[in-house]
Amino acid sequence: MRAFLLSRREAPTVLLKEHTDFDRQFRGDSLQPSTISVVDELGLADRLLALPHAKPSHLTLRTPRGVAGTIDLSRLPTKFPYIVMMRAPASKISPTVRRSSGTRSPGSVGAGS
After folding, report:
1. 77 to each of 29, 33, 72, 74, 101, how far by Cα in Å?
2. 73 contacts 58 by C-beta, under 8 angstroms
3. Which of the two residues, 7 and 45, has the higher pLDDT score?
4. For residue 113, is pLDDT > 50?
5. Total domain count, the chain
6. Which of 86, 100, 92, 79 minimizes the C-alpha distance to 50?
7. For residue 58, is it within any domain?
8. Is residue 89 included in any domain, yes or no?
9. What domain range is 52 assigned to?
10. Helix H or strand E encompassing 47
11. Looking at the whole model, is its pTM more than 0.90?
12. Rounded distance between C-alpha atoms, residue 69 and residue 77, angstroms
């Protein structure tokens, strides 16, 4: 998210990724309803939801002993009563953002960090 916001200001940005491959079994993200609401406030929800994704609204909690319960997100009082699950795109975010794979950082660098 920070890389995207910096790219909107055309600030040169390096996005560090620890893993070198984007074709692992699940290379993706899950976005919670509150996160999707923030993305919507940024005016990006329509673009995000236009990408291939899954929207589970009912989750089953399983343990080695069996089903521990279920969660029904559809009852949440929000515009987005579900979790968005999607593969992370390997494409470039913006001309000002460069991705560096196989890199680790001890923390964020920049103003306010």
Report:
1. 23, 10, 12, 8, 39
2. yes
3. 45
4. no
5. 1
6. 86
7. yes
8. yes
9. 25-94
10. helix 45-50
11. no
12. 21
